[in-house]
Amino acid sequence: MDALGRHIIVEFYGCTSARLNDVIHIEQGMLNAATEAGATVINSTFHHFSPFGVSGVVVIQESHLAIHTWPEYQFASVDLFTCGDIVDPWVSFDLMKEVLEATHYSAMEMQRGSLHLLEKAGETPSELQPLADMQPKVKSSRDVWFTEREQNTAFSVRHTGDLLYRKNSPFQKVEVYQTFEFGNMLVLDGCIMCTEKDEYAYHEMIAHVPVLTHPNPKRALIIGGGDGGVARELLRHEQLEQVVMVEIDALVIEASKAHLPSISAALEHPQLDLRIEDGIKYVQNAKDAAFDVVIVDSTDPIGPAAGLFNEAFYRQVYRILSENGILVVQSESPRYNQRIFREIFDCHRQIFGRDQVYCYLAYIPTYPTGMWSFSYASKGSAHPLTGLDDEHANAFATTHQLQYYNAGVHRGAFALPTFVSNMLGDNQ
Which pLDDT value is given to residue 132? Predict the structure, then answer.
């Protein structure tokens, strides 16, 4: 070969969109394309960008393979660069065409570092080493990332690259990744729902705040919550005689039972009345004053959760709450989802009364901005602060070895940053 390297630039067209959006499939395909071509893999770094797109590079001893995909256009741009004449980049090309299921392509090969234009530097090793001593002692590594993107920001989590669970339900795509920092991570339609390491903050705060401020809670309803975390926390309260959980997506429950055992264990609890059905219809058909506490643990207001964010649904919830009933809802990030955040509180205040609805915050590292809000709506005399018995709350937290909740955190959660109070109109 009369050049230092060979560089193939490829544009793959008509690829399968699902393949182009599958970071694990692409990473494994490119690793195989490198090794089959005779290359020595040093490391791989791949990112998935929610909702669409994968970028990645496989660094080989002989140079690199790189890719970026546009699933929405069924298109991928690929670079295959090898040094020397031992590794054939066209072998990698053939394999990547199969991996991406491309219908057609445009490819161009360039010779990099033409030898007739180059002259070796004068410095050479003073002693020649035996060939065996020059063989690299390479230990390859993988660097695969899941990225959840907002409009102008992104949050990335490194995982093993081996997908634990992926299925498409009639409602959403359900995935579980094994991450290095947060343990197993449940993802729905590209959005992080919970992780083993930080789930307790969300689940403890959405469950214990209403139950520990209700004068006499006996019956609780969970809408959503398929991972089982809210059920786990509610079932710690012995005074609750009935806990009903209504989850629309059986695959969320299946994935959680299989891969999130510390969160989902309560799904097998004999006291839990678990129903796989539409929570909206369940509420519509429930009797008046049927529950003392209703918790809506939903995803963002898209897909199957869209109907959980409108006035008609919450008027039905108001109807099924008992005289002193409490509704708690996850109400999004007040920094990123300001419109939805305001709409939720405006809706609840119209139904429950302005002075009966309160905002509180918790901090979850894997949620956008880390700051997450909850709406606490009281139908009667229950109050989130005056109704709290600090001594009892702290004793409860100690007995159950809670990781986040205690009486001080409970009270502090209702002390809002000024910008949040301003959005709610509380400083007017």
Answer: 45
- Over the chain, what is the mean pLDDT? 92
In a domain, 157, yes or no: no
Which of 182, 138, 126 shows the shortest CA–CA distance to 156? 182
Q: Name the one residue in this structure whose structure tokens are 């070895």.
A: 401
Residue 152 DSSP symbol: S
Q: In the chain, how many domains are there?
A: 2
Task: Locate 174 and state its tokens.
Answer: 């359900």
Residue 141 has pLDDT above 90, yes or no: no
Cβ neighbourhood burial of 1 (10 Å; 0-12, 13-18, 19+): exposed
pLDDT category at 153 given cuts 50, 70, 90 is confident
Residue 123: which residues within 8 A CB-CB, separation 6 or more?
Answer: none
For 92, the domain range is 3-114+140-146
Amino acid at 115: L
The SS3 assignment for 245 reads strand
- CATH code, domain with 278: 3.40.50.150
Please indicate whether residue 94 is annotated as part of the active site.
no
| Selected catalytic residue, list 249, 297, 346, 355 | 297
pLDDT at 197 over 50: yes
- Please give the structure tokens belonging to residue 129: 């080493």
Considering only CA atoms, give the Rg of the chain. 27
Q: What share of the chain is helix, strand, coil (3-state, %, to 5)?
A: 35, 35, 35
- Is the overall model pTM greater than 0.90, yes or no? no
Count other Cβ atoms within 10 Å, centred on residue 288.
Answer: 8
Contact 3, 112 (CB under 8 A): yes
**pLDDT of 136:** 53
DSSP 53: -
SS3 label, residue 420: helix
Instruction: Name residue 167's beta-bridge partners.
Output: 174
413 and 315: one domain?
A: yes
CATH number at residue 25: 3.60.90.10
Chain center to CA of 340? 19
